Write the structure tokens for this entry.
Amino acid sequence: MKQVKRERKQHLNSALYYTVMKDILANGIDVVFDRVNETLLQAREVGVLDPKHAPLIARLNVYRAFEPIEPSRSIILTPQNVDRVLNGQRNVMVLFYDPRCPVCRDFAQVYRDAFEKHPFTVYFASLNAAHFEALRIRFNVTDHPVLKYFAEGEPLENALEIPERTPDGIVEWLRAQLVEQTRRKKEMEMKMAMEGSAAEKVEKEEQEQEQEL
């Protein structure tokens, strides 16, 4: 135990992860949302130059690494959770924005209104492209605001840019994509079934020929 304590003092992030995990085990995973909001508020109150600011941001990043991914909540993307969210396992629409941009600030309400109407098979997420420059470059974002759709089962580089700029337009665009994805999935399943049947037929014919010999 003494060695563990020494290691925790030397590696502060490991100690922080330990504390956060204890909190989650004691209070449930939903406590993460409360802790994120609490820590954000504290960080804003102390200011960037305060010595307490950096430890608060470190704590915030750890909590966000555990943040549940749910379609009922808008997801704030960060370097800590982006690979968990955009991994090809779900449909995600991402708003890339710059908080300094007046158009982005106006479009935020459009995003919120679309979220209230969106199909729950699509996750909504947003990313501060000005703050996370590396992620902006990674996803080839050159303007703001930009909406990109990352479809389930597709490589990230195949993301589609959404041209719509109204809540209803965005939701209808998403629904059309879901219909198209379902159609393509059924076509693929039928193709695989037909190829499987053809392969079985060939194998059966080969077995019959061997028996005749």
About this structure: The longest strand covers residues 91-97. The mean pLDDT is 87.
